[in-house]
Design goal:
The chain is built from 7 helices and no strands. The chain is an all-alpha fold. It has 2 domains: 97 residues, no CATH class; 49 residues, no CATH class.
Length: 146
């Protein structure tokens, strides 16, 4: 089933607000589980598992940093799970929506000025380029033994 971009935008906003409002790790873990189920049903999980593992790793790192700052395991877990749920829903939006469709939805349906919508979608277009360049630099450094 395909959803229009506006529906995906609202779902992303709703899940992000929900993640911020949730205070317990159990609820955040359940929300992340629902996201994983949606990704599995939609066929996104099998295509984007590397990106998801990277997000999980980054969220774990964020949780460790939060623990070092607050010395609260609960706070660290909640922070990591919030980051994970919000970035996962945003990843689903980006992976399943063409940038042109996203721009049109932001301008026509959300009434965001074209300049702002274009800046947002232009920034999204550069992410794959930055990732490719970063990978090329890492490979070059590995060849040099760095």
């Amino acid at each position: 089933m395909k959803f229009v971009p506006l529906t995906k935008i609202w779902a992303t906003i709703f899940v992000s607000i929900l993640a911020i409002a949730m205070k317990t790790p159990e609820l955040l873990l359940a929300l992340f589980g629902v996201e994983l189920l949606v990704m599995l049903i939609g066929g996104i999980l099998l295509r984007q598992w590397k990106a998801l593992f990277a997000l999980i790793g980054f969220s774990a790192f964020l949780g460790i940093v939060q623990y070092l700052g607050s010395w609260s395991v609960d706070s660290a877990i909640v922070t990591a799970l919030r980051m994970l749920t919000m970035t996962t829903i945003f990843m689903m939006l980006i992976v399943t929506t063409k940038t042109q469709d996203l721009t049109v939805a932001l301008v026509q349906q959300c009434r965001i000025p074209y300049a702002y919508a274009f800046m947002f979608t232009a920034a999204l277009r550069f992410v794959p380029d930055f990732l490719r360049e970063s990978k090329a630099v890492q490979e070059a450094q590995a060849c040099r033994g760095m």
